[in-house]
Specification:
- It is a single chain.
- Helix content is 35%, strand content 11%.
- The protein is an alpha/beta fold.
- It has an eight-stranded mixed beta sheet with strand order 6-5-4-3-2-1-7-8.
- A hairpin with a 5-residue loop joins strand 7 and strand 8.
- Helix 1 packs parallel to helix 10.
Length: 332
């Protein structure tokens, strides 16, 4: 057995369980009334990013069907959930994306789209910017750095220039300045390290993007890379998996637990199965039986809070340092 695998196995076996750490701090991870429905529309994407926890890419076939879209919409209409967070893959690449968004907006609910920016410049997707503007979709856009070297290293050659072009297009339509057109950016570290303080990094992004490219945006979300899927493979190839997992455990911040996404979010995959978060979704840590996963349309919100939240070693990623959730840092 290679030394790297032996080291990784020892690290995992020596890592205290996430629930054990919570109990030792007098903490409990409990649900609140669901506020967000996060829907992963599938694994199809026009990019193949190193940090991707979905293993998404251009050759993936897993996408949400119209039948699943409509079953989710029927369930959603009967709830008081305020926000629908669309993620992927590239959500805009599923055939029923526009139908999905229009129906959700007709319910008066807020729609967030995890947009990779480059999709705005792909042939056949020229409609994306105008459609988002028309529907007042809140854009959460991946932008790992304000310099081309770091962005291209993480997401592929040419991605930085394409992202800048897309941001300029969105700015020209009012994103980042019109209060109804929210544009937030997402930072992921390039490598096995934690994000720097979110507020300081946001100030740096705003200064650099405005000075060099004339770009404005609302907020920056700093999100920790999870040691699962493609990023875990990257760590193993670099011999850094064990070191990174230890960093996450040693950086546990009890103040981060209050704002974790699993507490007020329901995560749904492209087939309609329910999870605690998008990370649990990608490693198959679902709710219900393995052979019969719980489907969204089987969920009753009155009993939702009674279902225990499932955890694993990767949960230390969300509680390390300033904390990390789909809305960025969860603690100071």
């Amino acid at each position: 057995m290679p030394d790297s695998i032996l080291t990784e196995s020892k690290t995992i076996s020596a890592t205290p369980g996430f629930e054990t750490v919570l109990r030792s701090r007098g903490l409990a991870l409990t649900r609140r009334e669901p506020r967000v429905l996060q829907i992963n529309t599938g694994k199809l994407c026009n990019l193949t990013c190193v940090h991707c926890h979905v293993n998404a890419g251009p050759k993936r076939k897993e996408i949400m069907t119209r039948a699943t879209v409509d079953r989710i919409l029927d369930w959603l209409r009967e709830t008081s959930i305020e926000t629908v967070d669309l993620t992927g893959g590239t959500p805009e690449m599923i055939p029923d994306f526009r139908h999905f968004v229009r129906e959700i907006r007709a319910m008066g609910k807020r729609v967030m789209d995890r947009c990779n920016l480059t999709i705005l410049n792909e042939p056949g997707y020229e409609w994306v910017a105008g459609f988002h503007t028309e529907q007042k979709v809140e854009i959460v856009a991946s932008m790992p750095c304000y310099s081309p070297e770091n962005v291209n290293a993480q997401r592929g050659e040419g991605v930085f220039d394409s992202s800048i072009a897309a941001l300029r297009t969105l700015n020209s339509l009012g994103y980042g300045t019109d209060p109804d057109l929210i544009l937030n950016l997402v930072y992921n570290p390039n490598g096995a390290k934690l994000p720097p303080p979110q507020a300081e990094l946001e100030a740096d992004y705003k200064r650099e993007l405005k000075t060099h490219f004339g770009i404005v945006f609302n907020h920056l979300y700093a999100i920790t890379n999870m040691p699962i899927a493609r990023f875990a493979s990257y760590l193993r190839r670099a011999g850094e998996y064990g070191t990174y997992q230890r960093l996450l455990v040693e950086s546990f911040n009890p103040a981060s637990v209050e704002g974790l996404m699993c507490r007020d979010t329901i995560s749904v995959d492209w087939r309609g199965a329910v999870y605690d978060c998008d990370f649990n979704q990608q490693i198959g840590l679902g709710l219900g039986g393995h052979d019969a996963p719980l489907q969204l349309w089987e969920v009753g919100l009155r009993s939702w809070n009674q279902i225990p939240i499932r955890t694993g070693p990767h949960c230390f990623g969300c509680t390390a340092g300033q904390g990390s959730s789909c809305g960025g840092a969860t603690a100071e």
